[in-house]
Amino acid sequence: MRPSGRAPNEMRPVILEPGYAKKAEGSCFVRFGDTHVLCTASLEERTPPWLKGQGKGWVTAEYGMLPRSTNERMRREASAGKQSGRTQEIQRLIGRSLRAVVDMKALGERQITVDCDVIQADGGTRTASVTGGWVALQQCVAWMMERGMLTASPIKDNVAAISCGIYEGTPVCDLDYAEDSTADTDANFVMTGTGGIVEIQGTAEGEPFSQDELSALMGLAKDSIADLVRLQNEAAGLK
């Protein structure tokens, strides 16, 4: 039995609330159970210097956790003078995931930055950030199209993410902290709406896992991400 009482293939309640931040071109407040992340998408009419003059844009991401998003206060990374390796790794994952479904030439010489700020953490903050970040990005693109800045959307597909793992010998999806902290295997899956694989991060915390167990986790991830894509489209007002 999972600590939450959920079935192995049952996600936590997922809520995607678009338009949460009024001043951002795009935003989404995403909840995976008790994991809450505010995702905002900000448009800049410029590209990174290394892309200047190439006729294409860029999508990037930043990630951070508020001091009391965890059980005990975390020190702000700004006060430490540098980002942790974990933070850098997660924001690079978010950026890669979003760029995988964007036509940079269609975006033009512009940059969209997706900021993911963790308000409350209970496992799966990076996967929630990818899932909510896509909704914020979609809103930003819709904002641009409404103003005639784009004639067609540069977003080619959905992208969403879910954590899966082996908990007490059973493959399960959407690990919360109680499961994540004691799981035998922990994995994150990033996939597109059409089933393409963007990234898989998997680690055996104890005993190595088998190919059959990996296949079981992949099946759970595929089904969960299909549900998340449906929720993304509903939040973004797409069919």
Question: Helices and strands in order, then pairings?
Answer:
Elements: E1 14-18, E2 26-32, E3 35-44, E4 58-65, H1 77-80, H2 85-99, H3 104-107, E5 111-120, H4 125-146, E6 159-167, E7 170-173, H5 177-180, E8 185-192, E9 197-204, H6 211-236
Parallel strand pairs: 4-5
Antiparallel strand pairs: 1-2, 2-3, 3-5, 6-7, 6-8, 8-9
Family: Belongs to the RNase PH family.
Domain Exoribonuclease phosphorolytic: 10-139, 158-223
Subunit structure: Homohexameric ring arranged as a trimer of dimers.
Provide a brief overview of the structure.
The protein has 239 residues and is an alpha+beta fold. 31% of the residues lie in helices and 29% in strands.
What does this structure look like?
This protein is an alpha+beta fold. It has a single domain (14-236), classed as Ribosomal Protein S5, domain 2. It is 31% helix and 29% strand. It has a 5-stranded mixed sheet. It is globular, with a radius of gyration of 18 Å. It starts with 13 loop residues before the first strand and ends with a helix.
